Amino acid sequence: MTQRPAEAGVTLVEMLAALAVSALIGIAGFTLLEGVLTRDAQLSGRMERIGDQDLAFQLLSADALRARRAVWSDDAGLTLSTQGAGISWRADTTGVTRRITWPDGRSITQQVLREPADIAVHDRSARAVVLGLSDAGVERIVMMPDDFAR
Questions:
Q1: If you ran DSSP here, which 8-state letter would residue 149 be given?
Q2: How high is the pLDDT of residue 94?
C-alpha cells in the first residue's frame, strides 16, 4: 500500500461517509425537535383547559360567597341572589353558562366553559353545590355562606 502525500485532500469515500453521518445527525435532530414541539402544543392545550376549569370554579365560589339567597332547580340550574344582581348558573353537555341580571333588566351571559358539565346540590340542606366536569373527572364542592337564605 502506498502512502498519500501530505498535501492530498480527502477522498470521495471519506466525503460521502462524512455527509452520511451529518445527514443522520440532522434527521435525528429534526425528529427530536418535532417531538418536543408536538408535546409542547399538547401541554399548552391541557394547561389552557385547566386554567379555564379553575376560572369556572373561582367564579362559582366568588358568586356563592356574595350570595344572600340561593334557588336550586333541576331543570333551571342554580340561581344566586346578591345585593346588586341575580346570577344564574347552568350546566349541560355543551358547557357551563353564567348569566348576570341586574335589577334594571340589563343582563349579560358568559360561556364559562365549553365542555360537558353538571351542577348539583351536594346535600339536602342545599348548603353546598357541586360543579362537576364530566370529561375531566373533576368536581369542586362550593359552600354557601352561613347567613344565606334558601
A1: B
A2: 85
